[in-house]
Amino acid sequence: MTQKEYSNAEITVIWKPGLCQHSTHCWKGLINVFNPQKKPWIDINGDTSQRIVAQVKKCPSGALSYFYNSQTDAQSQAPSGY
Hints:
The chain is of the alpha+beta class. Helices cover 21% and strands 17% of the residues. It starts with a strand and ends in a 6-residue tail after the last helix.
């Protein structure tokens, strides 16, 4: 399955388009980060890491997940946010 990663200094957001159910929770809740009208559609610098993580946690399909960049390699293999 294809996935894309978007990183800032603190977090990495993972998007798995094949899982996306297009529920619109992401962009309706944080349009300055998740904007389907832009390419790339995720602007990881569009808001604070805390707000981005909170929005990713609302993804009902699991298409969006995240991990903190400071995690060990073992921890980052199992993204949070499902």
